Structures are given as structure tokens and as C-alpha cells.
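Amino acid chain
________________
===
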Amino acid sequence: MIIVAVLSTVSAGCTKGSTPGSQPTATASSDPAGKASATVTVSRTPTVRVTPPAVLAGEIVRTVFSDKSGTSRQESTVRADPRAGQEYWLRAACTSPTPGKTLAFKVVSAKVGAPDTPLVSGTVPCDGTVTANGIGTLPAEPIMVDLEGDHTDVTSAYALITPMRGGLDD
């Protein structure tokens, strides 16, 4: 009974201070004199990052987020205005060691004085998979895509908008 109490205390203390992605394990033993001891080992999950693809044909905007050694950076590049009547894809990916973590994307007008009202919005799971959403047509004016939400534990993310021509590989 004492070993279980000691083990629970050690494991609970370790888990609170563990880094995301850590897998604490504990072992308990007792020596012939009946003294209890516990050992806790923490394994860290290696940091995984998503890499945005090279600039795609017809790409109008991309936003890239990275966090290296605690320094976060988000950079957006507007390449062209959308064309009237053209439908678009939004492709995005995100990584985090925290299970279930998501970021929100918001497509907004980048026109000077335009309201911050989203033209399109949604979520991106931070599990390293690429999410592709058909977002329909956009106004023929400068467009931005923002990655919003709690960036804590997010190691990398990107979102980009490209013309829809019939397939994701266009």
C-alpha cells in the first residue's frame, strides 16, 4: 500500500512538470528491509515540423508559422489577387505534440480599410496532415490568410490558397 502511494505521488508530480509529448513511466520496488523506492523516466517525443510545398502554380497567398527554440514567427506572402469567377483551394497543415490541438484559419480581405470580417474560416488539426478545403470564389482584391488560436506547443504550420482546376495536384 505504501509503494502505491509513493508511486502515485511521484507519477503525478512528474506529469505536471513534463513537457508535451512526454511519456512518463514509473517502476516501484522494495529492498529486503521493506523500504520503498520509485524511479520515474520521461521520454520526449522528437519535434516534428511540416514544410510548406514549393510555390504552387497560381498561388495567391501563403502564411507560414514556425517556433524554433521558443521564438515564434508568422510570415505572410501575397503573390497575386484572386481572379473573378475562379474557385480556390485552401491547403493547410500544422504540428504540435499536444493531441487534439487545432488552429483556426481565417481568409480576409487585405484591401486597405476593409473590415476584418472573414470571407472563409475553419480549423486545421495540428497532427501533421494536410487539410484541403474548397473555399469557392473570392473577391478580385488582395487576400490574406491568418492562422489564429492558441499557438502554444505548435511547432510549425502553414496555409496557402491556390486555384481549383479539378484536382488537388493542380
Q: What stands out?
A: The chain is about 10% helix and 45% strand. The CA atoms of residues 4 and 19 lie 24 Å apart. The two ends are 64 Å apart (CA to CA). The longest helix spans residues 2-17.
